[in-house]
# Entry
Amino acid sequence: MPLHCLLVAKVKLLGLSPSHAFTGTPILATLIWPFFFKMLLSLRPIKDIVAAMAQDSSLFVFQLGRIVMSQAADGRRWQRILRLTQERMATARQSVALANETYNDSLHTLSMVAL
# Structure
C-alpha cells in the first residue's frame, strides 16, 4: 500500500510540473479506485455486511442447486423455487425494517442522553 501511495504522489507531481505537458487525471483515477475499495472494505460494519451477503448468497445458491437436482416433477420444482425466493425476499424486508427500527431506537436514546 505505501508503494501505491508513492506512485500516486509521483504521477501527481509529474502532472503539476511546468516542464511536462502531462495530465495524470485518468491514471490517478485508475490508481485511486483500488485504494478506495480497500479503505471502504476495512470498515467493520461494511465488512460484516459483505460477509453476511456472501454467506446468504452461497446458502441461496446451494438451496437452488438442491431443488434443481432433485427428482421432483417440473411443476413442483418451479413452485419450490418460487417459494424459496419469496421467503428470501420476505426475510430481507423484515431485516431492513428491523434495522430501521433499531436505528430509530438508538437515535432516540442518543437524543435523550444528550438532553
